[in-house]
Design a protein that fits this description.
The chain is mostly beta strands and about 140 residues long. The chain is built from no helices and eleven strands. The strands form three sheets. It has a six-stranded antiparallel sheet, with no helix packed on it. A three-stranded antiparallel sheet has the order 7-6-9, with no helix packed on it. Strands 4-11 form a two-stranded antiparallel sheet. A hairpin with a 2-residue loop joins β6 and β7. The protein is globular.
């Protein structure tokens, strides 16, 4: 049976809020304060994909890494930059980003508000090994 997790914050506010979904800390090899919520995943019975919502605090960044699975990312709030391979790109609300398999990547919040984004990965990627990059560039 299907599931609905309602976003309860004002649609234009940042960050969004999903009170029925557990809020978890992001990995320890990234900036402090990043949060992750699995909106649609194993708990809901998915077999093909996982939909996650992340918030990155102002000035923060995700881990610099690469792994086997692809990502589909849609920026919902804030402004930031995304590293794809060797090049940084500015991103903002509504921008959609494809991150390829084994592509070095990182997301960083560059504004005064948190950067919020939806990230879709294959269900098979749930246990993929991430290679953390210590020094890039």
């Amino acid at each position: 049976m299907g599931t609905i997790h309602r976003q309860t914050a004002n649609a234009v506010s940042s960050p969004w809020s999903y009170p029925t979904v557990p809020l978890t800390d992001y990995r320890t090899d990234a900036s402090a304060g990043i949060t992750k919520q699995v909106l649609i995943g194993p708990t809901e019975g998915t077999s093909d994909f996982i939909v996650r919502y992340f918030t990155v605090p102002p000035g923060g960044n995700s881990a610099l890494d690469q792994h086997e699975h692809q990502h589909g990312v849609v920026i919902t709030h804030g402004t930031g930059k995304v590293l794809l391979g060797e090049q940084w790109h500015d991103v903002g609300p509504g921008d959609a980003v494809f991150i390829g398999s084994q592509e070095v990547h990182q997301l960083a919040a560059s504004g005064t508000a948190p950067l919020g984004f939806i990230c879709v990965i294959p269900r098979s990627a749930e246990n993929d090994v991430c290679v953390v990059i210590d020094d890039h560039g």
